[in-house]
Amino acid sequence: MKFGKRLKQHVEETLPGWRDMYLNYKDLKKLVRLISSSLEYGKSEAEFVYLLNNEIDKFNMFFMEQEEDFIIRHKELQQRIKRVNESEPSSQEEYEEEMSRIRKDIVDFHGEMVLLVNYSNINYTGMAKILKKYDKRTGGLLRLAFIQKVLEQPFFTTELVSKLVKECETTIDELFPTAMVAVELKDATITMVGEGIFRNTVAALMTMKEIRKGSSTQSHFSLPALSLPDTELIRYFQLNSPIPSI
């Protein structure tokens, strides 16, 4: 599948509030075509670079806002778990209800963080591809210098979010029995097959695997192949995806 179609499909499948935050690949592609046939090459290139910089600013603002929110929510979840484990519940039923709510919140939280890592991946990939098109169509040499700039941007720096994702997976594996998590996720699959975090997370994982798979055409601009961790949560996503792989 061509990147433009894959991006469009992914944007349609992501959270509604995120849809305007992705790379405007279609308009940038049109501009590349116009520039390649323009007599005012210098002016057109300046417009192209201006739009790319605006896209980077958009990515950074959105990514940093989400990252800050995730840090706060992660601390809150850890505090909730600590409170439940250290306090004496009035009944076993009350304890189980609160742990069930925590399980659901962790799974949702994990899903949103996976979406943000994928947000970084797919926007970087789109930038690399549109710059490749630009250089090929115009004979310019923008890609190398511009990608070096992109690699230094906050939206490309996913180490903190990836660390929180792994901590979520470890928490689920350590605190909750496999059978219990499977029941929760099975319910999520049934109730959220058409919408919600579960479906979005599966779509994001499939997209990340696709855009980061090894191929004979990879270059130093390509993201490394994705190796998913072997956790109960990830295994369930892979085995019970309610949507087809891209």
UniProtKB/TrEMBL annotation:
Transmembrane segments: none annotated. PROSITE patterns: SPX. Residues 1-148 form the SPX domain. One of its GO terms (biological process) is cellular response to phosphate starvation. InterPro entries: SPX_dom (IPR004331), SPX_prot (IPR031142). PANTHER family: SPX DOMAIN-CONTAINING PROTEIN 3 (PTHR45978). This is SPX domain-containing protein.
